[in-house]
Automatic annotation (TrEMBL):
Annotated protein name in UniProt: DUF86 domain-containing protein
One Gene Ontology term, aspect cellular component: toxin-antitoxin complex
Organism: Microbacterium esteraromaticum
Keyword check for Thylakoid: no
Signal peptide: none
Amino acid sequence: MEIRVAKELLHVQRWLAVAASIVAKGADDYHADEVAQEAGDSLMIKLGEASKTLAARGVQAPPGVTWSDAAKNREKLAHHYSVVDRDVTWQTLSVALPQWQEALAPLFAEARAEFGINT
């Protein structure tokens, strides 16, 4: 695995873990907490950018992961932030991103191995 790809995948893994910590607090807390909402947006923007990089580097997305959907989501959050639907962003954080965590687990393991990380 190319080092840049491994590094990008490890960033994605960390961002998914942070997103999971937002989700762990629950939907009510998310909807009441502007900071959590902005943090979630930031994470999804980063994931969208990473998705573009991974796709450009030829990384095949596993079933359940669509790089282009993440890139489109990034564009919407970054450029059309005044019309963001918090129910949709919550669904992305609480449903789609945990699925990504599972689907990308083999690539994360390969990326960690590239750097000699065992855990």
